Amino acid sequence: MKHLSEDQLYTAAFDSTDADAEFIDHLTQCTDCHRQFTSLQRLAQALSVAHRSQPSNAQIERYQQMSSLLPRKSSALPEWVAQIRATLLQDSRQRLALQGMRSGGQQAYRLLYTADHVDIELLVDALGSSRHIEGEVLSADEQKMQSPLLVELYATHPDQSEQVWTTESNPQGRFRLDGVALGAYDVIITPTVGPALRIEGIQIT
Ligand SMILES: [Zn+2]
């Protein structure tokens, strides 16, 4: 069975034209393509929400206050903690730029990272001058990636102060980070059992 192309998936998710029967047929049979499609639909939705909702000054202020209250740490995880490195599989910013899509500075985008037994998906959406990140860790082997997961975002650019955003995932491996400043980050995801995952050099724009 031939999978749906990235073009087909993007077109169906972003243009609300009717998908043909063959497309729908494949989606109902293929969990891989179905998952990709659902995630692209979420991105399309996030983009249209970003279009519609300009946050109020009060909202922005509240988020800034929240981020200033978040705990800061001066050092990353101890050296002895085993880590698996995840690599970038997809960055929808490249794709959207190719298609000439812009959303007036309010850009939502999707990053997909992969490691041997997990995929990590990040949906980044704008809220005023900061960003919020909705993430999901999808594991083929739940024994290796037991939720709740501890998720830490470390600012890595020398100009940024040493900021850390921390949150915990729900039992399904979903998490959310609010009030994230623009910049470069490393993300460390630590499961209840097993080695931590490390994603390096994420550019939040
Ligand atoms: Zn498929």
Overall mean pLDDT score? 76
Task: List the strand order in the largest sheet.
Answer: 1-10-9-6-7
Distance between the termini: 37 Å
Structural class: alpha+beta
What are the secondary-structure elements, in order, as H or E? HHHHEEHEEEEEEEE
Number of helices: 5
Walkthrough of the structure:
The protein has 205 residues and is an alpha+beta fold. It has two domains: 6-52, no CATH class; 57-204, no CATH class. It is built from five helices and ten strands, in the order H-H-H-H-E-E-H-E-E-E-E-E-E-E-E. It has a five-stranded mixed beta sheet with strand order 1-10-9-6-7, with no helix packed on it. A hairpin with a 5-residue loop joins strand 9 and strand 10 (196-204). It is globular. 27% of the residues are buried. The model is unreliable at 66-81 (pLDDT under 50). The site of zinc ion (ZN) has 6 residues, from helix 3. Residues 3-4, 26, 30, 32-33 line the site of zinc ion.
Task: Supply the key terms.
205 residues, alpha+beta, 5-stranded mixed beta sheet, 29% helix, globular, binds zinc ion
Give a nutshell description of this structure.
The chain is an alpha+beta fold and about 200 residues long.
Write the topology of this structure.
Layout: H1 6-14, H2 21-29, H3 31-52, H4 57-69, E1 83-85, E2 87-91, H5 92-98, E3 109-114, E4 118-127, E5 130-139, E6 150-155, E7 164-168, E8 174-180, E9 183-190, E10 196-204
Parallel strand pairs: 1-10
Antiparallel strand pairs: 2-3, 3-4, 4-5, 5-8, 6-7, 6-9, 9-10
The structure holds zinc ion.
